[in-house]
Design brief:
34% helix; Rossmann fold; 10 helices; four-stranded parallel sheet; alpha/beta; 8 strands
Length: 260
């Protein structure tokens, strides 16, 4: 099927949404992506890149003449949203803030692309997988734990409690620290640490994410020094922060990490 068949030309500026589009059978219609849209590797290889999530090349994107551009409140800048509205017929704004919000995301995709055969059925299947994973989490009695989820170093950075990641962790009884809320958007959602906060000594578990900073084995002692009493481990950041097809997988992954 031709990428421009029926006039549908999709640009995704959100890595997890790019992967979702392919999972829904919309890959042939994707005409632009960011450099961070790396999954599925074979599928995206030939799709033009239009910069990063924060520095979109609007001129290049305009030349690709998308009918739809998909953006995200956390991933992309507000000025990008506004500029896109000047030349894109449909700008779809996404903002999942919990695993449950993937239901609304799937509904949004169904409504936007229901003219493409199979999209609605694939959305329904992903929705069923999500519901099953959520039910599995809720069927367990979890031991509450204080968790520090690190996404960056120099400086150390973590997640506020109203982020998608923190709410994913809450599905298995893990409460993210510090006790901060970041609001709908902005830097406050990903606070920096000084490294001498008193509550660090009370953390039960430190999770070192594989993205956006790629933590590796050599970083384990550094994190252990930060929280001497905690269990420190590397985790798959894509499974814990990407929406769409990874949502159910991420919940199952968390259940395994938590010992169930």
């Amino acid at each position: 099927m031709n990428a421009s068949a029926g006039g549908l030309r999709i640009a995704s500026l959100v890595p997890s949404i790019t992967e979702l589009l392919f999972a829904l059978g919309l890959g042939p219609y994707v005409v632009a992506r960011t450099g961070f849209c790396i999954h599925p590797a074979q599928g995206v290889a030939s799709i033009p890149k239009v910069g990063g999530t924060k520095d979109v090349n609007l001129d290049k994107l305009r030349r690709l003449a998308p009918s739809h551009v998909i953006v995200n409140v956390d991933e992309n800048r507000r000025e990008t949203f506004e500029a896109l509205r000047e030349f894109v017929p449909e700008v779809l704004i996404t903002h999942p803030q919990s695993a449950e919000d993937n239901r609304a995301l799937l509904t949004q995709m169904t409504i936007a692309f229901d003219s493409v055969p199979g999209v609605a059925a694939r959305c329904a299947q992903l929705g069923a997988e999500l519901d099953a994973a959520l039910l599995a989490c809720r069927s367990q009695v979890w031991v509450p734990q204080r968790v520090l989820y690190l996404i960056w170093r120099e400086p150390w950075m973590t997640v506020a409690r109203d982020t998608y990641i923190a709410r994913m962790l809450a599905q298995v009884g893990w409460q993210s620290w510090p006790e901060l809320w970041g609001g709908e958007s902005g830097a406050a959602r990903y606070p920096q640490l000084q490294g001498d906060e008193a509550w660090l000594a009370q953390v039960d578990r430190v999770l070192l994410s594989s993205e956006p900073y790629r933590f590796e084995q050599q970083h384990l002692p550094l994190a252990q020094a930060l929280c001497p009493q905690a269990k420190v481990e590397l985790v798959d950041g894509e499974l814990l922060s990407w929406y769409g097809p990874r949502a159910a997988q991420g919940l199952d992954y968390l259940r395994r990490l938590a010992g169930c």
